[in-house]
Each structure stands twice: as C-alpha cells, then as structure tokens.
Fold this sequence. Notes:
alpha/beta, six-stranded parallel sheet, three-stranded parallel sheet
Amino acid sequence: MTQITFDSAFAACPLIAILRGVRPDEVEAIGDALVDAGFTLIEVPLNSPDPLDSIARLAKRLAGKAVIGAGTVLRIADVEAVRAAGGTMIISPNANVEVIAASAAAGMVSLPGIATPTEAFAALEAGATALKLFPAEGSSPQILKAMRAVLPKDLSILPVGGIAPDNMGPWIEAGAAGFGLGSALYKVGLSADEVGANARAFVAALA
C-alpha cells in the first residue's frame, strides 16, 4: 500500500496522538481506534515500554492510513532505530540540531521542540519539517502570535502540552497549525474505546 506522506496526513487531520506509556500488546487496537476517529499522525515516545515494537506494529497495521513516528527522540542513534522499525517521523522535546539534521538526511519528518525564536530558527536551519511549541503550558497564544510574526508564513507550529478540546481555539487564532495531544487523549490504562471517544472529541472541536 502507498505510504501516506506527512503533508497529506497533516492536511487531513493536524493532530498528533502521543501514546506515552502504550504497550505493544495494546497499541494496534488503540491505533485502529485513532484512525477510525480520523487521526492520521501517531507518535510512540521512546520512554514507553518496547517502543520500537509498538512503532513496527503500527507502521505495518496502519500503512497507507497514518504516519507513525517516535517521540522523546534525544540521540542520533535513535533516529536510525526508529527508521529501521518503520517509523517516518521524529519528534523531540528539544531542538538538538544533530538529531534534526540526521532525521532530515534520512528523509524523515523532523518535529523538534522549541520555546523561543532562537531555537525555532536554529531548528529550521538544521532541516526541521515543522515545530513543536513545548511545553505549551509554559507558553501562551500571545507568545505564539509574536513568534509567527517573524517565522516563515508557511511553517507549521504545533503547541504540545496541556491541550484539551476546549482550549484549542485561542491557539488556532494565534497561528497554531495543529497540536500534539497527550494525556487528554491517551494515558496508561485507557481502553481503545476510551481513546477513540477522546479522539472524536478532539476532531469535533477542531471542526
């Protein structure tokens, strides 16, 4: 099946599901529930149990339906490990230019975390695809709006951290192109049905 591109996935639904703590034995059912709700971008943080196994399972099961990647990617070696598992998206909490450059060189999507214009421009110069404003709880829509004034107009910035269906509006008005969604979407112990219900609430709030 043809692999879905990040651009087409983002255009379909600009929400990244962050499955921190998910286990390989439950990840496929949760992935199905997310895709059924309309999600096309799924991240398995590397500090989850056996994350490369989960990434490999999702990449195989959701081929052509969703872009699968890893979060909390802190080292260059992790980039290759994720690629070997079938992941195509590298997401980090920080803006390590070496990790960004390695991701870009491997033809992978690079979504580093930034909090300042200095970090944002350094990440873009290193080859970032889009930027994750993290932690959003420590930022504000006003800060994002000010950053948008100096950053490239076509750049996608995604607030991550503390995002819920009822607080996305001000961020969108300030120029957010999408969001990374954590515990309000998935947290350890939730069933696939519960994650699906949460996912539908986010999709509905975005409409």
